[in-house]
Amino acid sequence: MLNKKICMVGAFAVGKTSLVKQFVEGIFDEKYHTTIGVKIDKKVIEKDSESNTVQLMIWDIEGVDVFTNLKPTYLRGSSGIILVVDGTRRKTLEPAEEIISIIKEHLGNIPIVLLINKSDLETSWQFQIEDTLTLGIADSNIFKTSAKNDNNVELAFERLVELISK
Amino acid sequence: MLESKPDLKEQNDSGGEVEIPDKEYRRLRSLMLGQDYEAILTSRLENDNVYRVSSVLTEAFKKRNSEDDSLALEMSPVIESAIDESIKNHPERITNVIFPIIGPAVRKAVTRALADLMQSLNYVLQNSLSVKSLVWRIKAWRLGVSYAKYLLTQSIHYQVEQVFLIHRESGLLIQSVQAEGVSYQDPDLVSSMLSAISDFAKDSFEQEEARLETLQMGDLTILIEAGPHAVLALAIRGTLHADVQQVSTELIEALHSNFAKELRYFDGATEPLEPAIPMLQEALITREKAKKESKPWFAIIAVTLLLLVLGYYSYQNYLLQRSIEQAVVRVNQEPGYQVLSRNYQDDLLTLEVLRSAMSVPQNDLIDTLKPSKYEIVFNEKIASIDDPEIYLPYLSSKYQANLSVERGEQNKLIILGEITEDNLARLMQDSLANSVFSVEKSPKLIIKPSLSVQQKSRSDFVDLVQSINSQLYYFQVASAELTEESQNLLNQNITKIRRILDLQNQAETTIIQIGVFGFADPQGSRTTNIDLSQQRAKLIKSILLENEISDSLVISWGGGAIDMSSVPSQYQRRARIEILYELKGATSHAQ
Q1: N vs C: which end of chain B shows fewer Cβ within 10 Å?
Q2: For residue B16, how many C-alpha atoms fall within 13 Å in the half-sphere facing its CB?
Q3: CA of A71: which chain B residue's CA is closest?
Q4: Chain A interface includes B226 (CB < 8 A)
Q5: What is the sign, positive or negative, of the torsion defined by CA atoms of B361, B365, B371, B377?
């Protein structure tokens, strides 16, 4: 079994913790909890053989805002990144760009999967996938997700596992 | 500058050598090569020199080094500069190289410093006086340790409950072990959280170079020991002691030394580091508070009592087994008896015996055995020679003889068979067999009952009566008290008398009277002697009656002193028993 560390990053209140909770426990909680520092969860992705099975240590890092910058120390040793933006808030794209530059600076060219979250509210979205082109992430690594409706959550995580297992 | 000596001879066309003047040779060379000559020459010489120097450099160093220290002196500034330069350019490399070396050195120095500190502390404490310190000092003295050491042991009590080996870069758990009976959260999560906490502390206090060394939660301490590629975290319950710190430091060094490659290139696969688990387990140490060593008296007493009880019962059992064995041997020795099996249960020894009809009755035999701790019961079968069911198969089996019964002359039983010499010898000595029949061997084994049952019984009866009638019992001087020997003889003969009584019917005889006659020596008056001789006869009569011999058969009579003066007086102080009987169908008696 392989142990891999991945990090959930993004602006505050984009739904990182909810996505992790949905992925790990299959639960969605309407209440909002701010993550301070980092919260860590574990999920084993079963594969055809024990040696290919991956245990993900998911570091859910506090959201970035004007007061809080992304702390690169938490990213150290990461094999992949899940970058989350909120489709209903266009301004969550700005910190995403900044986050990508920090990742590239400290971790180099590691796999990043972009999640445009809250697809259950897609009618209220303030931007579309095309608007994320500036982030430089391949289309195949971008997912519209909903932690609330469990839409594409597992698919997105599995895509990251696929990328880091290469 | 070095210059090769030009060859001043050249060959002419005919092969002979022609002398060329040195000056002209130089001129010719100058014309042909011009200014390039010097450069080519220099280059060639330099190349040759590099080649020659490199080939002898090591040997030259070695030789010079053996001669004096000048080489070391000359080179030391160069090496110092090189190290300076290397550290400036690649500090991690030097750190990784010296990490396993410098750790033990530092530790040794610190241990020494602590030992010195201990000595100083000891000195100070020895000079401080209080009631408590006095008590502790006495205790330390009793335990044979220094006072300072005793004080430390008072506060030491810890257990390393869990050990985590964590990848330094990613915070991923590489391996973990935990003490028995300890349960924690998921070690993967714990290890990641420890890394996160450490990162958080670094970020929060902007201490990039510093590292978190301990975390304290109640009586649980997390000791964190970082190496270049991995971090060791020990969860310690109780007081954090220098021993644990030393163990953790040594362990992280050993892990980096033994698994350098695996740790450096850790990619999340934990299997290659599974061999590190035994090393981690060694760090799960426990130290109890020093306890006063005392002898476990309760345990000693309990074990001793147990051993005594076991010993007593074993000895009793041994005595019992020996007693049973002796009883069986005794029964087997009795003519006409053969023990077939034995069973001991609830203080009752049951013997399956084969008995000849003319042997001593079982009750008499039991009386002679006199076991004190258990009862004996005979489950007897009469060994009748014409009983093909019991005795014959028994004999066949015991002596491995194929026996069969035939009727001989006068309708007597004859048993025929074949037997080995050894078994024949054993059969000849068989008391039971001999009491029943006689054995002949011509040419085959022939076993003939020597007498009929009635004849045998009568023969035995007569023999016994004659034996009794011929015995005398002697007394002490002027006393109706038997001598010790006579007392024993009487005891034996009482058994015989009882057997005689039993044999009466089989032998077709009737006992008419058992007379006991007492006598005295001539000392004293005649009346006294008659009186004494009567007392002696009555004594024996009373003993017979006590042994269930019918009063209606026994008479006693005292004759006083009747012997000739030539009879020694000790023989005159006697009594005898006389049994009178008659044969059925004839009038006769024996004495």
Answers
A1: N
A2: 3
A3: B203
A4: no
A5: negative
